[in-house]
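Handout, section 3.2

Students often ask what a structure token actually looks like in practice. Rather than define it abstractly, here is a full record for N(6)-L-threonylcarbamoyladenine synthase. The first block is the sequence as you would receive it.
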Amino acid sequence: MTAVTFPPGKQSYIALGLEGSANKLGIGLIRHTASETTVLSNLRHTFVSPPGMGFLPKDTAAHHRAHFVALARAALAAAGVLPEQVDCVCFTQGPGMGAPLSAIAIAARTLSILWDRPLVGVNHCVGHIEMGRQITGAGNHVVLYVSGGNSQVIAYAERRYRIFGETLDIAVGNCLDRFARTLAISNDPAPGYNIEQLAKQGSKLLDLPYAVKGMDCSFSGILATADALAAQMKAPGPNAEFTPADLCFTLQETVFAMLVEITERAMAHVGSGQVLIVGGVGSNERLQDMMGEMARERGGSVYATDERFCIDNGIMIAHAGLLAYETGFRTPLEESQCTQRFRTDEVYVKWRD
């Protein structure tokens, strides 16, 4: 990482990070010194929809607006930081859901103007990667980024996070979330987490499509087939010879095997035995186990974090934003609009060698 240069009389920088690209409102504060990175606070409030339903953009944005002020005050209090001590306001500029992103962008602009502090727009995916690197100490590893909205295999080269492979349709997290709706599984604390717990009770591996195309994956056909099996299970008449737990087990085993395959192919390409898993789905223990088994066979290992840093959070935005801020990056107010399509490889990673 590029060495941080502080102006005379200053020994640290503090950033406020605002995340709200989906149903998690996250606010965190982080401090960088010349030698240390300290998480000062990392609070989150989740919009939970009823079982069998997803979260609509307008309802999610309303949730973020309703809880922002209280959560921001609580984050500042937990960190023991006053607004005048904050050096920059970092916010998720994309990718994500349009309405929630806009709600957070408006909040970030408001604080920037009220506190007279510069804005730093952050790519959500890069935020996940940089926080994963910070927490695990991972170096130049292949990155598997898996969440509700994104599924990518990434490697760093020449100041960019290069995408080697990705989903061709829906993200793996979205696939799991939508199947949770099919089974009317609770969304509290998260549909993917509840599928993971139910899958531990399953034992029968059913036939699902396996859709790996080179370095890319496709999940929509798998979801359609799983939905059809669920409908067969629920149909009146003789009971199906499988359970909801078997369906969850099968879905996880299939989609995770696909992700392990394309990750291994990227590792072979770049000559690395190490994998860093980031994103909300990255906290799934079964995915970590499968990836770990593959990496050990290659003489390598897997780096992953728990739900505090895998699931969307404000501290990852604060950290990635502060890294950019320290290299001189700022987001002018007139360029602070958010975008649902903000590619990981669009970001110039000036803070890495």
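Discussion prompt for tutorial groups: The chain has ten helices and twelve strands. How would you have guessed this from the sequence alone?
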